[in-house]
Amino acid sequence: MSVNQQAHTGPPYGQAQPGYQGYQQPGYGGQPLPGIPHSQYGAYNGPMPGYQQPVPPQGYFPSLGFPSKGSPVSLNSDTSSLAPNFIGLLRAPPTSGAPPPASGASLPSGHPVYSQFGQGDVQNGIPASAAQMHRPPASQPFLPGSAPTPVSQTSTFQQYGPPPGSAQQLSNQMAGMTIGSTSTPAPPPAGLGYGPPTSVPPVSGSFSATGSGLYTPYTSGQGPPPTSVSQGLPLAQPPFSGQPISTQRLPTQVPGFAPPPSSTGIGPSSYPPTTGAPRPSPMQGPPLPGQTVAGPPTSQPNHVSSPPPPSTMSGPHPGPSPMAGLHGPPPPTHPPQPGYQMQQNGSFGQARGPQPNYGGAYPGTPNYGSQPGPPPPPKRLDPDSIPSPIQVIEDDRSNRGSEPFVTGVRGQVPPLVTTNFLVKDQGNASPRYIRCTSYNIPCTSDMAKQSQVPLAAVIKPLATLPPEETLPYLVDHGESGPVRCNRCKAYMCPFMQFIEGGRRFQCCFCSCVTEVPPHYFQHLDHTGKRVDFYDRPELSLGSYEFLATVDYCKNNKFPSPPAFIFMIDVSYNAVKSGLVRLICEELKSLLDYLPREGNMEESAIRVGFVTYNKVLHFYNVKSSLAQPQMMVVSDVADMFVPLLDGFLVNVNESRTVIASLLDQIPEMFADTRETETVFAPVIQAGLEALKAAECAGKLFIFHTSLPIAEAPGKLKNRDDKKLINTDKEKTLFQPQTSFYNNLAKDCVAQGCCVDLFIFPNQYLDVATLGVVTYQTGGSIYKYAYFQLETDQDRFLNDLRRDVQKEVGFDAVMRVRTSTGIRATDFFGAFYMSNTTDVEMAGLDCDKTITVEFKHDDKLSEDSGALLQCALLYTSCAGQRRLRIHNLSLNCCTQLADLYRNCETDTLINYLAKYAYRGVLNSPVKTVRDALINQCAQILACYRKNCASPSSAGQLILPECMKLLPVYLNCVLKSDVLQPGPEVTTDDRAYIRQLVTSMDVAETNVFFYPRLLPLTKADVDNDSLPAAIRNSEERLSKGDIYLLENGLNIFVWVGVNVQQGLIQNLFGVSSFSQISNTLSTLPVLENPFSKKVRSVVDMLQVQRSRYMKLIIVKQEDKLEMLFKHFLVEDKSLSGGASYVDFLCHMHKEIRQLLS
Ligand SMILES: [Zn+2]
């Protein structure tokens, strides 16, 4: 089953509910995005013509009565259920006092908006309006003085010219053969790689008023490989120059490289066990009697480049030979060359260390010993001769990191996500918002099917931008709302064609012609372009926002500002671990950092508090009270909110009462013996509170145990690891009851987003508890076996970021496409009630939605293909907006063009999400096989149609996809698809949910972690040491390494590390004294300690979650955990090594081709 063929339209949990009553969406708005940095708008001084933001309705204030339930009585009458230590706060619910100040309601005054009004009279808007357009002084990459630089697009395009023509491709392909040379480029300057310090945002930890940019340095953006050139990569050693041998052998060989049985063992689904053992040995040719297995690695040719190649080596570069790659027959052996060792590590400029002393200790280590004389046996692939992720990343950095990426060119492949680069919007959305699997899509569905390359876009609508880049402008089209196509409702964008002197415009998506509203009319210049082209973001930029009118609001009423409700588990475990006290302490200060509109004095967000175990306790924290009041609801079967007035309050107004409450909560429950909890009623309570207040909002739930107390949504412990690898394994990923699906639907309808912080000491059923979070666009944070000392920093950092980050509420996203393709499938944390609208109660700046496209007609090379993602959302101040992102792609009639313009990182992001959804319905083995098959088809299609003729025994990979095998293998070996014995069911469900919302940068580092040799770090500057490949054989016993994957940071210490380094880093005098329970590195005053801590801080800042720090000593128990992340090696759970997997892929491809 090929991935492409399965069109799932439903949400991951498959509960698209047709009957779902969403709110009315007049004319369906676009989709707004949350994370816009509001501050920027301020600088944009547009007149606020006529548009008066109506005061948001004050939802609940007027209604004094209790909600329908009527029995307010239960509150007080229930005193028995109060905790013994109840402090006597209990009082009758206050009868509505004076309506609380409508603080939240007022909009930021003078919220400057981009409006055409006021400029209308200006014929040539540029001068007059230009000034208005300019945004914040700070970021002015473009639009210096006048509107978005009228730079002639043509000139800009040149910077990143389209990929070389096909002719070149071929030649490159030839060049590519010398894999060795490509893989052994000069060592990149140390530190060049990872972002220069400048790009790195301030270390987290401290609060920042606006969450934007704080934690997400732009390094996270990724780009695809620069060149679209496809290269044939001979995986195996290129034949030695001048030796025609290789070519001749071609036909004969069987599965290319690995002659020995070991390779054969690789079944389609099971990889050969070979790797476990010293990898090299199997590969070696005929074992000579008496000969030690550890012969010199055969591969020489590729390496040649580094050290002075011995005369024999000379060959690789020249010509034809390159094809030799995967030939079965062993190439003539060459005496090991001196210098070879250096190449092993040297190729990437890093530590050369490992080899020498590492010898036999590590299984994977090939024999570095020099084995003179005897012809090297056919050897297996030399790890250094196969495509290296590190090399690709470094090459992209050096090739594309220095120039800004200008988006004016259609179908341009952006730099990789691992490259630091600036983006200039000249008509297409930044790759920080949208990345595609391919920027050149086949004109016909037949071609698309033939290639099996999925056509998908990974969209992060509210992505945080680096400070140097310009935030989307807010445009106001007045009371009639944004100008849109009459038929398909696409929003005005740079690709609309104005005709008839500017009186009408033709839609670039559906071709329908629409009248230009009188207030929007403008003359055209001699090229047919509106003279105000550069004055209007929606005509000249790829991303911008529109102010939404009341037609885009629920019930045709402008929204109220959202609310945050903190719901704290106060059962025994939560109290005993110190968690309750910790949360309460933190909230006292954190509440001052709620998100706010850029120019507002204070956040418009109101807050409320609930605690719970088997019953729920609501708190009245109205500012006029001297003390908070508690109301207990013990009837959890039919949840209602016992008070309206005083439950959701403004932080500043109720500061004293809130502080008092937060002081009292830990005391009130200090002696609790209640161990049982409820869960669904907690969400219901939050939902009811938001309903009563008529606003959207977010619930922050802090929960510790499986909810077994009698109540709706009660769960059983149904964990059963015996189900792994059976047909029933999928049930572990499915919720155990549909109750939560229905609850999620209600939450989405209200705009109630649920963020869940869990602290389990045992199975907690993340697959079920996470349903509401997942479908409302929320986040889950998991702290297993939470301990104050070791986990509090991580938890608090996560909580701070989560509370402060940019988020849009009540969001709906739709992706429109030009004729010929359409969005058919969606992946992410959201809910869908129909096949086109992605609904999210909340969407934050870290969440992505992946959209797959299918053909429904032919495309043309001339017109290309267009995407328009529109997100309708409510800002944190309660303003309704639309964020629009446009992207134009090329279309091709030649498959080679498709393969030249793909982005593997994005492809992997899509494939991982596809596979992770697949486990809900199919056995994981089926899912893995389908992935392998699809990728084999992708590569076989390339080989058959695009690569130059060559030996069948040679593996040829398109340049842009040369990392597809290694990355795919990482996905296949991941905990969800192939769990090791230590992985829990909850871990798998958790990771499955996380990955589903990850952007491309996150999946990239999650599946192929970053491994940095700390001992190679330059303590004199801020750079990061150059990364090395994730394999044990790259490690040296004498060095210290850091590995990060976005969730964890490991610091691995070799047994032979110099005592001085250990002293400097850990403050202890010997290896044996290093504690592996440290959760932070000691703060020591020496350059090495400072350097390492700054590296850790830099990495923490780049990720959306605070990573857990784990110290691993070589040969210690924890090392098994660490080795799990050395993804190029064979894994304990049976995952193949990179080399073995590559052999396997090659075999699969050959089978498809034969
Ligand atoms: Zn249209």
From TrEMBL:
The keyword Protein transport applies. Residues 1-56, 130-411 are annotated as: Disordered. Residues 559-803 form the Sec23/Sec24 trunk domain. Residues 1023-1094 form the Gelsolin-like domain. Residues 482-520 form the Zinc finger Sec23/Sec24-type domain. Gene3D superfamilies: beta-sandwich domain of Sec23/24, Sec23/Sec24 helical domain, Severin, von Willebrand factor, type A domain, Zn-finger domain of Sec23/24. One of its GO terms (cellular component) is endoplasmic reticulum membrane. It is a peripheral membrane protein. Keywords: Cytoplasm, Cytoplasmic vesicle, Endoplasmic reticulum, ER-Golgi transport, Membrane, Metal-binding, Phosphoprotein, Protein transport, Transport, Zinc. It holds the Pfam family Sec23_BS. One of its GO terms (molecular function) is zinc ion binding. Residues 149-159, 166-184, 209-222 have a biased composition (Polar residues). This is SEC24 homolog C, COPII coat complex component. It comes from Dromaius novaehollandiae.
